[in-house]
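Q: Entry one of two.
A:
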Amino acid sequence: MIAFTPTEWSSWLTEVVRETPSNTNGAVEVVVGVQGSWIVHSTRTAEQILFSHGEVEAFRHGVLAGEFDRDAMLNDAGLLAQAS
């Protein structure tokens, strides 16, 4: 598991949408591998996750659809006011 602060998560989602993992979000660094795969490394731990090109694209489409918006998820769960 790789942990993100809310600010890091927002920055990471922007990188995903733009398809430009710039490694400036503070939580992860991305190495683009063969055939468009991404190797995502935590900047704090030894954790790394490999995503195939198809998984990267599915995640990107989910981000574009708002499926990973932190505030929307908390609001849907009735937790937004508690997290602020």
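Q: Entry two of two.
A:
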Amino acid sequence: MSNLFYLPHANRPGTDRIEWANGTRSDLVLIPDVINDEQRPLIIEFQKTVDKKFIKRAISYCLQASSRYGIDPVILIFCIDTVAESTEEKFENSVRLPCCATIPCDFWAEECLILSKKTIKQHINVEGSLNPLIALGMFFTYQASAITLLPRCEDPTLVFLYEVAKKSFQEMQNRDLSLLEELKNVYDTQLQDYKNTLSTIQTEEEPLHTITEQI
């Protein structure tokens, strides 16, 4: 996939999410080098709860993509937590990706794929390595704080994902510690200025202009 798609940097101001013409943003959009019926724009969404309201938003994203690229996209939705019962009733099994469900999307997308903890359940206990998409689905839907809490903790894709997550967390932690140190320095400086000001005010011999300079 990495050889076929690129991220359209011009349309993602400061984030990894693409902004559509109506001001809304998708989480991720992959664009083929050559767009045709075999290689379509791919919209990827990560959603805690998939319900009617979210599906309407997903339809909007797909219509925006159709307008921009002149072809209906494929949308892949990672359901992180729950699928509303009224939405799940519309699910059909995906022939192309058995680990996903699909919903009817004839007029707004080429295909709408939904991956959830439930849809990947029967594809976990298999011989050999996990399908990378299933491993990615486990990473998002199981929400395990440690890889050892997962049923396939030895899988190479899962190991890689947790290594990336650990590195990213450490980088964020280091940035936070650096920010805290800067804030502490500012606080210490202001505290010392405050003490100096109080000391000046309490000294009757100090002229007024000295007090104002201290402040």
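A: Comment on entry two: Strands lie at 5-6, 28-32, 42-50, 74-83, 92-93, 101-102, 111-115. Helices lie at 52-69, 85-88, 117-120, 132-142, 156-201, 208-214.
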